[in-house]
Amino acid sequence: MNNLLSIPYGKIHLLLAHNCYLLHKLGITYCTMETQPTNGKKFGTFAGVFTPTLLTILGVIMYLRMGWVVGNAGLLGAWLIIIISFLITLTTALSMSAITTNIRIGAGGAYAIISQALGLEVGGSLGIPRYVSQGLAVTMYIFGFREGWLSIFPHHIPFLIDIIVFGILLTIAYISADLAIKTQFLIMGIIILSLISIVLAAYHGSMTIPTEDAIRWGTFRGSPENNFSGSSFWIVFAVFFPASTGIMAGANMSGELKNPNKSIPLGTLWAIGISFVIYMVIAFWLARSATEQELISNYNIIVDKAYFGPLIIAGILGATFSSALASLVGSSRILFAMGEHRVLPYGKFLAGQSANGQPRNAMIVTGVMIFITMLLRDLNAVAPLVTLFFLIAYAMINVVVIIEQNLGLISYRPLFKINKWVPWIGLTSSVLAMFIINPTVSLISISIVFVVYWFLSRQQIETPFEDVRSGLFVSFAEWAAKHTWGMKKMQQRAWKPNLMVPVRDVVGAKGNFQFLRNIAKPKGSIKLVGIESKVANTKLAEELSSLSEAFRIKDVFSSWTVINTDDFAKGVNYGNQALKGAFFRPNVVFLNLQQHDNYETEIRPVIKESIRLEIGVLLYSSHPTALLGRRNMINVWVSDRTNNWDIGWDIGNLDLSILIAYKLKKNWDATIRLIIVIKDEEERENAQNFLNLLINLARLPETLTEVKVGNFKDTVAKAPSADLNIFGMEENLRFEFVKEMTLSTNSSCLFVKDSGHESILA
User: Fold this and answer.
1) How far apart are the C-alpha atoms of 81 and 402, rounded to whole Å?
2) What is the predicted pLDDT for the residue at 462?
3) Cα(61)–Cα(143) distance, rounded to whole angstroms?
4) Helices marked H in 491-530
């Protein structure tokens, strides 16, 4: 394939056209015209959609490679290639029409569509490479125009031609999109005249080959560059395919259309339909007007066979100029849109506009980039990226429609409706086309997109609009809920701490911020439940919202609500009762014991009700001076199991204690020490074996153990120091015991009651 496409550099750029793609050295590229909303003139269907779309599709591939395609593939093969190419284009155009009639598409074309659906990170990951590739395409088209000009005036200075063409293009694009459209009207007139020249040739007898001889399957002999050593159907397809693309030109004009919901589908589909007929007819005319040898050996066969050849040359020059203008206007609109959304640095400057709404700053930056690339003089190596970035964008547009259709959200109600199979065909065919054209460069293009996405995802870009990701994530959550709801309740392997934290005093909650975060991080969650009197006029809701946001910033999901009641215990219990039927419900209640709390009327009722509802309980008693110390050591106290040292799935009220200790160990980089107090010295070996087996089965690395003999309270007072001591609790936990343990250990203490749904052995 490389040999087939090894055309001398001096002739490459005659082939550059509307299809910002260069198969190695073939010089065939593809591009779309993109604009942003302006305060100036609004365009109708013909000027705003049909004209730019048709001109994007009818490029110099039609003039300089259609004969070669027919010569290699035969008329039947050429027709099949045209049909497949336009089928890919049509399905994506239908998807694009559906999505653009469901949203207010802004500047940037495909960038805007994808950003509004999947977020600025995804949109930017495609927008940035597309912007650069379209800038490169402008330079390629300028080079192509120059080579075409030199074929007429060979003594003119090449670089001077480049500078003059670049200056004219930049001036037209800088003034306004209106002038660019008017310029394209002139170019369309030239292309129509060139087509008339072909019709006149047919009328005056150019079709000398009998129809039965013309309708045949090709022999795929190759090209002069590979000495006619052969090609294949897919190589010929890869050469032709970029000619059929360009469907975004109309959608990109949406901000400057009088009625985009009507004009985009109508103008785009008419342009595709008419250009399809033109390609099919020209293929038939070529098959009957020239022999196979003429078609595969003479790239200028249409120039030679047309009634008036200079009109074809004018069409080639018009095609390259039109494509360069479209790329310049489109790339500046992409840059403007990304600047407006602050996807790029200096976004405010890039989003600057003139009085009539033209993106002047983006145009200047784009012009500088293009001028720099013009100095390189040879862009063949990077040119294949251009079309492949567009194909990736087309694939993503189909992905957007697939997601919208399957989410079933009421917000998806496009005025232009399509069947569900359409975007699937568009997605599949776009991906296949990428790897048929060039597998290696396709992988490089996809890799570049992922690298840019990774970079943007770390920039914490603020999205100014809601995208479909919220609905997508909710749908995933609903799907997961429906498929796991019928499973057994004991989902111990999937356990994670989802804390409910009752809050009356936000100051106390802030004091436990890091402690709560270290219990929940990384996969747990924290639900803040504010309890305040109905008549209270405080800022509790505002403070809870701020605290919840702080947890989310620190990588712990958090939500909040406020319950108005004068009874703290009832408020917490009502919250737990209401959430019992929810799928994503809290599984642990965190109670922060403070001096102003009435233990008997506020804390104990919550503990009892939580036990009844099978919700775990953490009662935190902070030491007044030690607090959480250095966070280096955690003591977990294991109850005496004399006469029952066997370890089964039920190890008593110990699972949640060790799970919480393990979470803190990971987040504190601390050490766990398991301590058991027995009354009989003869049980020491059994107790030690129990702790060793527990560590092994629970997979607790680097865990210390101690077996103490004697009275529990006396032992606690003499226990090794720790920053946090964790004790099991009974339903009737006494306040005196809580305070006694806190003072005896000279540390903060955590009293834990399992829900019965945790297992450290799972």
Assistant:
1) 26
2) 63
3) 16
4) 506-511, 513-520
> Tell me, what's the pLDDT at 540?
86
What is the secondary structure of 556-574 as a DSSP string?
-EEEEEEEE-S-HHHHHHH
Q: Shortest CA distance to 17 belongs to which of 240, 275, 307?
A: 240
Cα R_g (the chain), whole angstroms:
36
Superfamily of domain 489-621 in CATH is HUPs (3.40.50.620)
What letter represents residue 493's amino acid? Answer: R
Helix and strand counts by DSSP (H, E) for the chain: 31, 10
Where do the domains of the chain lie?
A: 9-457, 489-621, 623-762
Closest CA to 277 of 21, 62, 45, 32: 62
Q: Tell me the two tokens of residue 342.
A: 């602050």
**Strands (DSSP E) along 179-306, which ranges?**
none
Give the integer Cα–Cα distance in Å for 217 and 74.
5
Domains 9-457 and 489-621 share a fold: no
754/388 Cα distance (integer angstroms): 56
Position 481 scores a pLDDT of 61
User: 411 by DSSP, 3-state: which?
Assistant: coil
- Eight-state DSSP code of residue 42: P
With a CB cutoff of 8 Å and minimum separation 6, the contacts of 107 are 34, 35, 36, 37, 255, 333, 334, 336, 337, 340, 359
Which percentage of the chain shows pLDDT scores above 70?
Answer: 86
- Signed CA dihedral, 224, 390, 371, 312: sign only: positive
Q: What is the pLDDT of residue 688?
A: 93
Residues 701-717: tens digit of each pLDDT: 889 999 999 888 888 98
Nearest to 401 by CA among 388, 420, 375, 415: 420
pLDDT band at 476 (very low <50, low <70, confident <90, very high): low
- Which distant-in-sequence residues (6+ apart) come within 8 Å of 394 by Cβ? 92, 110, 245, 247, 426, 430
Beta bridge partners of 709: 678
CA separation for the pair 102, 558 (Å, rounded): 33
The whole model's pTM is what? 0.66
Q: What is the 3-state secondary structure (H, E, C) of 725-755?
A: EEEECCCCCCHHHHHHHHHHHCCEEEEEECC
Superfamily grouping for domain 623-762: HUPs (3.40.50.620)
pLDDT digit string, tens, across residues 121-160: 777 787 787 788 777 778 877 887 887 788 788 889 988 9
What is the DSSP track for 634-680? EEEEEPP-TT-----S--STTHHHHHHHHHHHHHHT-EEEEEEEES-
At the fourth CATH level, which superfamily is domain 9-457?
Amino acid/polyamine transporter I (1.20.1740.10)
End-to-end CA distance of the chain: 57
Cis peptide before 720 (omega within 30 of 0): no
Strands 748-753 and 616-621: antiparallel
Q: Is residue 443 predicted with pLDDT exceeding 70? A: yes
Q: Calculate ∠ Cα 607-611-615, nearest 5°.
A: 100
* Alpha helices (runs of H) in 32-65, residue ranges in sequence order: 45, 51-57, 60-64
Residue 235's φ and ψ, nearest 5 degrees, are -65, -45
Is residue 17's pLDDT more than 70? no
Please give the DSSP secondary-structure letter assigned to residue 683: G
